Amino acid sequence: VNAPGWLPDVLAVVMLAVAGFSLWRLAVARLWARVTDYGADAMHALMAVAVAGMLVQWLETLPRAVWTGLFAASALWFAGRLAWSARPGQDRSALGRHAAYAAAGAVMVYMFVAGVAPSALAGSAAGQYAMAGVPGVIKDSSLGYPSLGLLLAVVMAVYALAVLNQVSIAPAGGGTGTGGRGLPVLAPRAVDCCRVALAVTMAYAILVKIV
Amino acid sequence: MTDASLIKARRAPRAPAPAVAAARGRAGGAVPTRDPHRLLQLALAALWLLDGVLRFQPSLFTRGLAAPSLAAGTVGDPGWLAGTIAWWAGVVQSHPVGANTGFGLVQVALGLGIAWRPTLKAALGVSVGWALAVWWFGEGLGGLLTGGASPLTGAPGAAVLYALAAVLLWPPARDAGPFPAARRIGARAARVVWSVLWALLAYLTVQPANTAPGAVHDAIASAAIGTSGWLAALDERAASLADGRGLAVAVVLAAACALIAVSVWLPWSRAVRAGLVAALALAALCWVFGQGLGMPYPGMADGPGAPALLALLAAAYWPTRVLADQDAEAVAARLAVRRAGEAA
After folding, report:
1. CB–CB of B3 and A176 under 8 A?
2. Does residue A170 belong to the interface with chain B, where contact is any CB pair within 8 Å?
3. What is the mean pLDDT of residues A25-34?
4. Residue A177 and residue B27: Cβ atoms within 8 Å?
5. What Cα–Cα distance (Å) separates residue B170 from each residue in A173, B29, B31, B163?
6. B173-221 residue pLDDT tens
7. For residues A153 and B68, which has the higher predicted lDDT (pLDDT)?
8. Do A166 and B29 touch (CB under 8 A)?
9. Residues with Cβ within 8 Å of residue B36, at least 6 apart in sequence
10. With an 8 Å Cβ cutoff, is B97 touching chain A?
11. Alpha-carbon gap: A27 to the closest alpha carbon of chain B (Å)
12. CB proximity list for B194: less than 8 A, separation 6 or greater
């Protein structure tokens, strides 16, 4: 049993768009002296490329061990920023965001360790008479620690909705705020949409390997 | 979380923490979001989103989607209901990929729409209609007319509970209420809804099909098929314990449901909370032992299942801070009297 081929393709393209947008933000911030959080944008770009590589065969990225090390390091780095922000006298407004990115790094490590990867089955059973659980039907259920995966998928879905809720209560135009010398921050609602897309796609990538 | 709080100033002096906090406040990042009513709406959104994402599992794109889950659902249903379900099963079987993609997209959109405040009412409204349609065509009215529906196996159906939750969690007409579910339709009406729901579950539990000696065993054993190792072991153990004790288990379950039904009318907040905790525990038991956590492991989960909705509804009846504040005022008054007495 395998998903229709177009589904992971579409999601992978969305992820590549997220990665491209994040890289564009980094470039614009550098060239035009706009303000942004370099760590967050870099994390978005890395996560999006990695998740796309987990969905489709045609996108060969870095070896899994390299990705695992990269996300373990990023999780530690954001955990360090979290600890730094929690110190007395520091700006505590970023605590939640740092915690979220540290957790996202940990989830990515889980996904690589547990074996979230493009389906190894040829073709798709979509539209045919086949069903999981029936003898003779091959399932693509290669995920390790499936119960943890189920829990993390729920966490990612809840995170996506929390982001969406938070951004929808910001007043119109106010979500952009101002930074530095009064320069507008780069399209923050688009960044939040990227977070939502990333979280939902990660939840999908985990769930599809549990069955 | 907005990017106003995501700023790391570049080529500019670092803003002091109070200024950042003030900017964050202007940007709306400090808007309070702890309203229990809103949190419950978000929980409902999460269930819809998970429902939608689970729809994209590979096995649900096969023609097997329609045959076992829809057509088999007509067994025992009256002809007028079975006919409509069979018609819908035929439609889905003809276009399994398109139908399942449509179902998934609608449910993902409902989850995102409830979370996005400007579309909250529209999404809740659509969710009521969608859920009732799914309840009819997809769940055969939860099997209520078959005589074999049991809370252990998901009665009265997750879909109708989605609709009920959407109504109870509609943006409130009142600023406050004794519990979140009362803020739209009032406390009395909300309590009536709760009591009717749990009385129905008690009634279903003692139906002849559910009190047979092997009824509970069979329900639990079927949930264990294809599940993860630890869950299968747990379910198999529970099934062996329940074997031959269908009537006893059903009576205990029915009594618990009846107590939960009346608990919200009790004048003591602790008793109300105890009833709600019992409802949560019962929902958890049904979820684990009767439904295998919604059966995600065999790839047959098309949603978290009715127990998750029952838990959400129980949370919607949890006494809110209005009661807590009253209690706090009473405690403060007693303390003031005591201190006055000590001073005298």
Report:
1. yes
2. yes
3. 86
4. yes
5. 27, 24, 20, 11
6. 777 788 999 998 999 999 999 999 999 999 999 999 888 888 888 888 8
7. A153
8. yes
9. B180, B318, B320, B321
10. yes
11. 13
12. B181, B261, B264, B313, B317
- Please give the structure tokens belonging to residue B55: 């729809």
pLDDT mean across residues, chain A = 83
More confident residue, B324 or A162: A162
* Mean per-residue pLDDT, B268-278: 94
Given this model, what pLDDT does residue B252 score? Answer: 94
Question: What are the structure tokens assigned to A159, written together?
Answer: 């995170």
pLDDT at B326: 53
Q: Which of B26, B31, B228 sits opposite A169 (nearest CB)?
A: B31
* Inter-helix orientation angle A95-114/A38-55, to 10°: 20
Q: What is the DSSP letter of B33?
A: -
A141 pLDDT higher than 70: no
Cα distance between residue B139 and residue B135, in whole Å: 5
- CA dist B310 and B162 (Å) reads 9
The Cα B20–Cα B291 span in angstroms is 49
- CA dist B293 and B284 (Å) reads 9
Burial B86-108 (b: 16+ CB within 10 A, else e): eebbeebbeebbebbbebbebbb
Share of chain A above pLDDT 90, in %: 50
Say what the ipTM of the complex is. 0.85
Whole-angstrom CA distances from B188 to A46, A93, B194, B201, B326 are: 53, 42, 10, 20, 20
Q: d(Cα B322, Cα B177) in Å, to the nearest integer?
A: 7
- Look at residue A196 in the predicted model and tell me its pLDDT: 95
Report how far Cα A4 is from the mean position of its chain's Cα atoms: 22
The full length of chain B comes to: 344
Q: Which tokens belong to A140? A: 């693509």
Q: At A135, phi and psi to the nearest 5?
A: -55, 140
